[in-house]
What we know:
The chain is mainly beta. The protein has two domains: about 1-90, no CATH class; about 110-255, lipopolysaccharide transport protein A fold, CATH 2.60.450.10. It has no helices and 19 strands. The protein has strands at about 5-10, 25, 30-35, 40-50, 55-65, 75-90, 95-105, 110-115, 115-120, 125-130, 130-135, 140-150, 155-170, 175-190, 195-205, 210-220, 220-230, 240, 250-255. It has a six-stranded antiparallel barrel with strand order 7-8-11-12-10-9. It is elongated and about 65 Å long. The model is unreliable at about 5-20 (pLDDT under 50).
Amino acid sequence: MNKFALILAAVCLSASAASAQFINLTADKQVEWDSKAQKMTAVGNAVATKDNMKINADKMVAYYAKNTSPQAKNKTTVSEVHAEGRITVSSDRATAYGDIMDYNIAEDAVVLRGAPAKIKTDRETITADDNITYYPGRQKAVATGNVFAQDQKQNKIYSDKMVAFFKKNDKSGSLEMEKVEIYGNVKIKTPDADVIADKGMYLPQTGIVKLFDNVLITQDGNKLRGDFAETNLNTGISRLLAGKTSNGRVSGVFKEKKKGDAK
């Protein structure tokens, strides 16, 4: 099958003319340019590339307009990219998946929706029922709606919202997930214990999860309550600390073992 390609020369993909970039748009079936509607449509394994980001989809539509700012010198500016069907957004060591994508260039926001939407790194996978919004310039992703994260050791994190921050590895030069902020109905499930809290922070490089406010650890029928907990997903060890709201004390309910129970 022939590959159709259209190079959108001198197309600005940033609100700043000084950081203008090229976008390449290709497809297996067709690439259509509609000057009246000011859009370009790629159908059949559509691929758009920009910098270190690559977008694949069954269909992709790029909307554009003339940039009338003095700095842009009347060049054509892509304002939005819409994609549908089997979408992947690849950037360095993270890949996101969804069924519908809207990329707002001015806001530097890629919104993915799916059943569910998913973002995957070499260490963990995050899914969300509502959407995942990726901000390429800020190296940040926000997942909302029944968010679920799982690492290679089958440790699981549940919450209403997660905000992931990426940073560039000094040695490899690629992006890595630096931390994940966790909000609302937070629950951690490890092979050894369950932990719930109001909010938390996950540090993927160390496997540490820090949990705050109304913390409850359940293990082998025993329950511990406090204001702050730290769970090491690599070792399965959790520790609990007291704070002001618990009057400086950690409380617990311990299950009494009967004769014949395993020690």
